[in-house]
Amino acid sequence: MSALIDIDQLRTFIAIVETGSFTKAAEIVHKTQSAVSMQMKRLEERVGRPVFARDGRASKLTEDGERLLDYARRIVKLNIEALAAFDDAKLTGRVRLGLPDDYADRYLPEIMARFSRAYPGVELTVMCEPSVELVDLIDANELDLAIVTDCGTARASETFRRERLLWVTSNRHSPHLEEPLPLALGRTSCGWRRAAIECLETMGRPHRILYTSANVGAVSAAVLSGLAVSVFPESALRPGMRVLSPGDGFPELPACRVGLIRNPHESSALADALAEHIVSSLDNLSEAAQAAE
């Protein structure tokens, strides 16, 4: 093969894989669905193999598609790094990032450190709100980029991280043995709260909401003081917390998916640069895929 693979086609290919849909990918890459389909047709012609196998409405990767995905991610990442090496000094201005406060606590230090080193002339404005409210702020053109929990809403997000969602209690107390089970959870719009309650209702386990807060510090305080049980993603576990297993009577919860949402009203080089730094800093999907092999 003498011709090179088109970078834009690879970006679209990655978006389809991460969203599981040509339609959602079209929204992310700002193209029509027909344009996305044409890009994938040309990509398959370029590599000489089918990369997607239709399964009803879903688009699943073929074995060759799985092989291409790893190359695609590395090629796109290297392309961005190469351009950034020559354009860093030219990027100035302000970029607005939104994320929930628990993600800010865990992820923001690394994101800010890497981004500020690469783009010292850029002002990063950060807003901490629950995921549902961040989607509204994106729609209102008040944010350029948001890190959100993918709660299955109509808004497509670029999923880059997946973690186990775990039942947690204090390692010095036993509120998980109480009837009804006392819970400390997020607001009613929180996807983790819905997952926990649905699981308990399916089990027929009596429960009561003892504390509600959108602030992860407040929920953690209720757990660590031994007053309630809650649910946390694996990376959010704190010293003093104990994970409750099926052996304790707490079945597994759905995985927690973390993704990016971009401003649909306008694109910016700063937002794209920040998005790439976020994904390169926090992405664990490639590692998970390799571990599953």
Q: Report the count of strand segments.
A: 12
User: Helical percent range?
Assistant: 40-55%
CATH topological fold name of the largest domain: D-Maltodextrin-Binding Protein, domain 2
What's the CATH H-level homologous superfamily of the largest domain?
Periplasmic binding protein-like II
H/E element sequence = HHHEEHEHEHEEEEHEHEEEHH
The percent range for strand residues is 15-25%
| Structural domain count | 3
> What's the Cα radius of gyration?
21 Å
Strand order of the largest sheet: 4-3-5-12-6
Largest sheet: 5 strands, mixed
Low-pLDDT residue intervals, each spanning 5 or more residues = 287-293
Query: What is the CA-CA span between the terminal residues?
Result: 28 Å
- What's the total helix number? 10
Calculate the mean pLDDT score and round it.
Answer: 85
Q: Could you explain the architecture of this structure?
A:
Helix 1 packs across helix 2, helix 2 crosses helix 3 and helix 5 (101-118) packs across helix 9 (269-282). It contains ten helices and twelve strands. Strand 8, helix 7 and strand 9 form a beta-alpha-beta unit. The protein has helices at 7-19, 22-28, 33-47, 63-87, 101-118, 131-139, 191-203, 216-224, 269-282, 285-292, and strands at 52-55, 58-61, 93-99, 122-128, 145-149, 158-163, 165-170, 181-185, 207-212, 230-233, 241-244, 256-262. It has 293 residues and is α/β, with parallel strands linked by helices. The two termini are 28 Å apart. The strands form four sheets. A five-stranded mixed sheet has the order 4-3-5-12-6, with helices on both faces. The radius of gyration is 21 Å and the shape is globular. Helix content is 45%, strand content 22%.
